[in-house]
């Protein structure tokens, strides 16, 4: 029993479900092919679908039994930290940022906190009534409707 369990791996349930789906699907498929019934096409399609669904259980069984050494797994997802390389990158980044601050003349956040910065108030002047036009004023200025001409066109 222990040998069978070791051969099947950790996901024995998925293995047995995949085997059962394959057996039932193959049985139904072969019944549709060799038995002379009027719904043979249904049996052929149903058997094929059940065999296809067994692939899900085979994939579960296979992926459930993949074994990765702990060292590779930790290194792959970034759980191990290389402190020498990390410290090198931090020092390099801080030196570059200090160089940019000095060359651009910017003040740091600490210096901004210590300085009192006054807010400048700027507002747009209010619009004068001479410059504001409404849509109806523009339309009435551009369109000249002639009542006599309008009725003559509709009568013909």
From TrEMBL:
InterPro entries, alphabetized: TMEM238
Segments passing through the bilayer: 12-36, 42-61
Lineage: Eukaryota, Metazoa, Chordata, Craniata, Vertebrata
Keyword Transmembrane helix: yes
Name this protein carries in UniProt: Transmembrane protein 238
Alphabetical UniProt keywords: Membrane, Transmembrane, Transmembrane helix
Highest taxon, organism lineage: Eukaryota
Coiled coil: none
């Amino acid at each position: 029993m222990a040998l069978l369990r070791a051969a099947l791996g950790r996901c024995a349930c998925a293995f047995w479900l995949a085997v059962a789906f394959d057996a039932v699907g193959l049985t139904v498929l072969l019944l549709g092919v060799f038995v002379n019934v009027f719904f043979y096409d249904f049996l052929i399609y149903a058997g094929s679908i059940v065999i296809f669904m067994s692939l899900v259980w085979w994939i579960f069984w296979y992926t459930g039994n993949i074994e990765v050494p702990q060292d590779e797994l930790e290194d792959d997802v970034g759980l191990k930290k290389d402190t020498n390389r990390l410290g090198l990158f931090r020092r390099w980044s801080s030196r570059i940022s200090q160089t940019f601050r000095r060359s651009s003349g910017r003040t740091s956040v600490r210096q901004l906190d210590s300085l009192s910065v006054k807010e400048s108030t700027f507002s747009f002047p209010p619009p004068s009534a001479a410059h504001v036009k409404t849509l109806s004023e523009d339309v009435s200025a551009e369109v000249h409707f002639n009542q006599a001409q309008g009725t003559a066109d509709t009568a013909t």
